[in-house]
Amino acid sequence: QVQLVESGGGLVQAGGSLRLSCVASGRTFSLRSMSWYRQAPGKERELVANILIPGNTNYADSVKGRFTISRDNAKNTAYLQMSSLSPEDTAVYYCSAVTWSPRMDYWGKGTLVTVSS
User: Fold this and answer.
1) What percentage of the chain carries pLDDT values higher than 70?
2) Cα 49 vs. chain centroid, distance in angstroms?
3) Quick check: 94 and 105 in contact, CB under 8 A?
4) How confident is the model at residue 61 (pLDDT cuts 50, 70, 90)?
5) Quick one: which of 4, 40, 67, 85 is 20 to 30 A from 61 by CA?
6) Dist CA 18 CA 1 (whole Å)
7) Buried-exposed string 12-47: b where 16+ CB fall within 10 A, e elsewhere
8) CB 106 within 8 A of CB 94
9) pLDDT at 102
10) For residue 41, cis peptide bond before it (omega within 30 degrees of 0)
11) What is the DSSP string of the chain?
12) What are the C-alpha distances in Å from 55 to residues 12, 13, 87, 110, 112?
């Protein structure tokens, strides 16, 4: 089992920056990847960024160049550094993790990011 706890959400002005954190606990030795998703009101959940434990990263086109995902394996923590934020980035951001053997998906409860004009 893996438990995920997000933090760092809040209110920020357009153009500002925010860093989200996701701490994993439990079966962290089996982590394959960690990801950030977001869901805005009335919209589908979308993948924002993911990072494989070896370090390879992927980003949604909408955040490429503005957001950076990183991780500290020793601390079992993933981060999402968000810059040049706009109101369109307002959403609940969820941390997700995938494990090996067995392959399982885990989710945090989410943290709200609100970007004001």
Assistant:
1) 100
2) 7
3) no
4) very high
5) 4
6) 29
7) beeeeebebbbbbeeebebbebbbbbbeeeeeeeee
8) no
9) 87
10) no
11) -EEEEEE--EEEETT--EEEEEEEEESGGGEEEEEEEEE-TTS--EEEEEEETTS-EEE-TTTTTTEEEEEEGGGTEEEEEE-S--GGG-EEEEEEEEETTTTEEEE---EEEEEE-
12) 29, 31, 30, 23, 26
What the block records as the tokens of 26 is: 């439990």
User: What are the two backbone dihedrals, phi and then psi, of residue 29, each rounded to the nearest 5 degrees?
Assistant: -70, -15
Q: Parallel, antiparallel, or unpaired for β 91-99 and 111-116?
A: antiparallel
Give me 61's structure tokens.
């086109």
